């Protein structure tokens, strides 16, 4: 299929591009048969909620072969770091700590390649925003174009451009609360809207106007020196997210029950 590549804007044969990279689905699939359930849950209108079974991660015809290859190298780097797909990972936890109440954890990382991981994060944000498969809240067109231009030029921008707070959700036993991907949702921060993407126990919170937020809130962002903080927290500490997940579970349970009756 030919069309306009969303990244370089050239007319070309378009590839089936993953919106969320395939390696991020590794714990989401059922083993036999290999599939996962995609849920779109509208909290205040159950009639608009929907579900479907998919055998591969969500893909759309977005990119030409050249731009697809451009993103692939940054995906490979992310797979090696966050998901430890290979043994070439050079990012490591230099220091960790836990709050007195045991609810919050802090992992201070060093050794990231700023360009490679920042561009990966930006590409994830951009694809989710422009995707027709995800019901992402509307984002100002100027931010979308700023992202597209930077990604096309392979420019990671400053550390506080589209800064991302990466969080990992755990239960009381210390296990990561994974195996699901939630539709992107918006929250309000100080001087910035925040677009949140929950993928297999990791929450990627992108500050769309991150230059405007207080310096103290930028501390966790990936820095040019390769340092980044990942915040761990118990899922139960986020009431809003718990409600979203409960609604998804209730809808899924009802759907399965209805299909079986």
Automatic annotation (TrEMBL):
This is HNH endonuclease.
